[in-house]
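Key result, reporting period 2: structure in, sequence out.
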């Protein structure tokens, strides 16, 4: 189903992507403000460096501007052998 029809039917869309794709998601979410969307895995952060964490946090802050988005915290440890840092 096209994303523009998800809200028309009262459905919730899921968005699964990596941290580096969050800027693209920001543009997509701005285009569909009436559609409820769950960001799966909180935009999985693959870059485990300090700079990677900073970029991920900044990108999530930008996503948080969209009141129609909910983060789903899952698999945060799947991409690293260290516990997640939020």
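The corresponding designed sequence is given below.
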């Amino acid at each position: 189903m096209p994303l523009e029809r998800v809200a028309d039917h009262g459905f919730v869309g899921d968005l699964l992507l990596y941290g580096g794709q969050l800027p693209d998601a920001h543009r997509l979410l701005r285009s569909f403000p009436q559609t409820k969307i769950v960001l799966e895995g909180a935009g999985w952060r693959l870059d485990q460096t300090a700079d990677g964490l900073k970029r991920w946090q900044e990108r999530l802050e930008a996503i948080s501007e969209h009141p129609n988005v909910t983060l789903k915290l899952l698999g945060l440890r799947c991409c690293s052998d260290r516990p997640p840092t939020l």
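The radius of gyration is 13 Å. The first strand starts at residue 13 and ends at 18. This case is discussed further under Risks and Mitigation.
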